[in-house]
Specification:
By secondary structure, this protein is mostly helical. It is about 75% helix and about 0% strand. The protein has two domains: about 160 residues, no CATH class; about 30 residues.
Amino acid sequence: MKRIFTPIGKTIGFINQSIAAFGIAAGVALAFYNVIARYVFNSSLTWASELTIYLFLWSTFFGAAYCFKVDAHISVSVLLDKVPPKVAKVLMLFSHLITFIFLAAVSYYGYQYLVAFSDEMSIDLEIPMWIPESVIPVAFAFAAYRVAEKIVFILRTPAEKVRTQSEAEMILAEMEASAPEELLREVEKRTGGML
């Protein structure tokens, strides 16, 4: 099973990262060019603002889908820290299942919307609107896949080991892996042990 999920996960991760990075870089470059063209040369690209919006949307949605892989979305774990590990595991499974259902539903209905309104055209770019709007079903499907991966991980992991880390704990773990002991003591001293 891992042989199937690993290549799919890597491919989805590559697509998410590539589109997010390209979308933000191209959107910023295009917006910058259009501002310079407008104020310096007194002419601008009429379609640039519409394309910039689409690039930022694609970047945002695919970046958000990637965040499910690295657990970068905001979560409140106060309740999970207070309950026994088995209850925390059940609560995490429930939370991830609700998230999966929501993401899959948005992906499905986003696809239904594309099919129903597939003949619409964009105003400035004069391309079919299903092209920029396909970000919804695709990005949400990728995010749903990532949540499904997390559900499988939670199911396979013993309850005692299923626990979310706070952001501070993740930062400390990264620092411990890459920094000498003296630096860690200095950071703890300067932050008053807040990290």
